[in-house]
Amino acid sequence: MVPDTRPAAEITAGVHAVAHTGRRKRLVRGIDRFGHLATREPSAWVWVASPLGLGRHQLVQVALSEIITHPGRAS
Questions:
Q1: What is the DSSP string of 54-66?
Q2: Which ranges of the chain does DSSP label H, i.e. alpha helix?
Q3: Residues facing 49 on adjacent strands
Q4: Distance CA 58, CA 39 (A)
Q5: β-strand partners of 11
Q6: Most confident of the following: 6-10, 57-61, 69-73
Q7: Nearest to 1 by CA among 37, 40, 30
Q8: Alpha-carbon distance 24 to 11, whole Å?
Q9: Residue 11: CA atoms inside 13 Å, Cβ hemisphere, count?
Q10: Residues near 35 by Cβ (< 8 Å), separated by ≥ 6?
Q11: This prediction's pTM
Q12: Alpha-carbon torsion 38, 43, 47, 50, what sign?
């Protein structure tokens, strides 16, 4: 899967997801696959933008309970 590379403003204008990765909240740009953490908790491998916002993306494993959907912004 290729991550969504649109600007964050375009993505957050519609329904979007945010993943809590440690102490950070990062915009989910795509889900690659589903699995389980070592604790057998359901998880997903998600594409997130790099913390510096330089257009690079990372594939990280996040518990499904740490992925939250948000409605789009009002225009």
A1: SS-EEEEEEEGGG
A2: 8-11
A3: 57
A4: 22
A5: none
A6: 57-61
A7: 30
A8: 18
A9: 17
A10: 42, 43, 44, 45, 61
A11: 0.77
A12: negative
Mean pLDDT of the chain, nearest integer: 86
Closest-CA residue to 3 (of 52, 61, 44, 55): 55
| Percentage helix, strand, coil for the chain under 3-state DSSP, each rounded to 5 | 10, 50, 40
CA angle 34, 35, 37 (to 5 degrees): 135
48: exposed, middle or buried (C-beta count within 10 Å: 0-12, 13-18, 19+)? buried
**Distances in whole angstroms, Cα of residue 5 to Cα of each of 36, 51, 57:** 26, 14, 9
The pLDDT score that the predictor gives to residue 54 is 63
> What one-character DSSP code corresponds to residue 9?
H
In terms of Cβ atoms closer than 10 Å to its own Cβ (0-12, 13-18, 19+), residue 60 is: middle
